[in-house]
Structures are given as structure tokens and as C-alpha cells.
Write a structure and sequence with these properties.
This protein is 4% helix and 47% strand. The strands form three sheets. A four-stranded antiparallel β-sheet has the order 4-3-10-7, with no helix packed on it. Strands 5-6-9-8 form a four-stranded antiparallel β-sheet, with no helix packed on it. A two-stranded antiparallel ribbon has the order 1-2. The chain has two domains: 35 residues, no CATH class; 99 residues.
Length: 138
């Protein structure tokens, strides 16, 4: 495996691969698996909410308010301590600053509530492109 220098052997898990010529012991860095995205979604939040592409996301719920959505996971996270990264793209608006945030007290192992807003705290937008990525243990 190229590009990795083991610092702590206890962070590796061995995998044995057999071939007709020899048996090779490969190490898989367990922490890389733990750090990869376990759920992500790209969806259109305008009109009827539509998922463009996703992994481990079963559906998006439109919570009835402008820019207010819940991302529902297919497989639950082990705890509510997963890390979430958000992105939004908005077309044809006069605002030059946008906000996207998750509602901290709405985080569960099976879903997370997302709100998209404009330049003020109380403004809200239905965005044509919303991206959510979550990293943590399933």
C-alpha cells in the first residue's frame, strides 16, 4: 500500500490475501474506515424535495417551513456524536451570503434536521442544491 507510514501498529488490522505464488499480509488502517463518510446526500430543496444522489440516506422530509428539512438515515449511527458537514448553492437571489446549519437539539442516530437561510437570522430559503455529509460510527 503506497502513501501510508505506520506510526502505531495497534491502529492496523491485518488481512491475509492468498495467491498461488505466495501469501501476503496486508494492513488496513482502521482509523481510515472510521473517518470515511457514512452518510451523504445531494438534494434539491425547491418544490417537491428530490434526492439527486446519496449513500445511507433513505429520505428527506420537508418540515413544512421554508428551508427546513430532515435527512433520514437508512442505517442508524451508533451515537449522536457524528460529525456533519453542510453545503448549499442558491441561484438567482439578491442575497450574497447564505447560511446552512443543523439544529443541535434535533440530532438523533437516525436523522438530522437542516435549515437553510439567507443574510439574516430569521430569513429562510428553499435551496436548489443542498449537500449533507456525516462521519461517525454506524
Amino acid at each position: 500500500v503506497y502513501g501510508f507510514v505506520p506510526v502505531n501498529e495497534s491502529a492496523f488490522k491485518p488481512i491475509f490475501v492468498s495467491s498461488p505464488l505466495n501469501t501476503t499480509k496486508l494492513h488496513v488502517w482502521a482509523q481510515i474506515y472510521d473517518a470515511k463518510s457514512k452518510a451523504w446526500v445531494n438534494y434539491d430543496g425547491t418544490g417537491t424535495v428530490a434526492i439527486r444522489d446519496s449513500i445511507n440516506v433513505s429520505s428527506i422530509t420537508d418540515n413544512g417551513g421554508v428551508g427546513d428539512y430532515t435527512v433520514n438515515f437508512t442505517t442508524a449511527f451508533a451515537t449522536t456524536d457524528y460529525c456533519t458537514t453542510l453545503g448549499v448553492a442558491v441561484n438567482g437571489t439578491t442575497s450574497s451570503t447564505f447560511s446552512i446549519r443543523y439544529v443541535a437539539d434535533s440530532i438523533t442516530t437516525t436523522s438530522i434536521q437542516i435549515r437553510v437561510g439567507g443574510t439574516t437570522v430569521d430569513s429562510a430559503l428553499n435551496a436548489p442544491a443542498v449537500n449533507v455529509m456525516c462521519v461517525g460510527n454506524l
